[in-house]
Design brief:
The protein is mainly β. The chain is 0% helix and 62% strand.
Length: 116
């Protein structure tokens, strides 16, 4: 959120920047469901998840960064399993990623990933 706008996902595959009076500044349609959105300086980070895949698969989940003003995608980092949370502090992005599952599909291990 800025003094002029807010960026949100409304439970679908669209990332939206809206003015405080509700006018759309930009919209980005993504290929997977958006599960979390945070702001870091002039960048929006969206966590996405492919709900069509049960547990793991290449590019099952991703973090995608977008320019706050234009909505242009800046970068993407993909994962083979769920991205469970994202946070930003001091110029670093933190995320928790599932890295191992038991035979029954339950989560066996997670890893904290930091970059930036």
């Amino acid at each position: 959120m800025t003094d002029d706008s807010v960026v949100t996902a409304l439970g679908d595959r669209r990332l939206r920047a809206l003015t405080h009076v509700g006018a759309t500044e930009w919209t980005r349609e993504l290929d997977h469901e958006i599960t979390d959105v945070i702001g870091a300086d002039n960048t929006i980070i969206a966590a996405t998840h492919d709900r069509s895949v049960e547990t793991t698969a290449p590019e099952h989940a991703a973090l995608r960064a977008f320019d706050l003003e234009s909505g242009d995608q800046l970068w993407e980092l993909t994962f083979e399993d769920h991205v469970e949370s994202i946070a930003a502090a001091g110029g670093t992005i933190y995320t928790t990623v599932v890295i191992d599952r038991q035979e029954d599909g339950d989560v066996a291990d997670k890893r904290l990933v930091a970059f930036g």
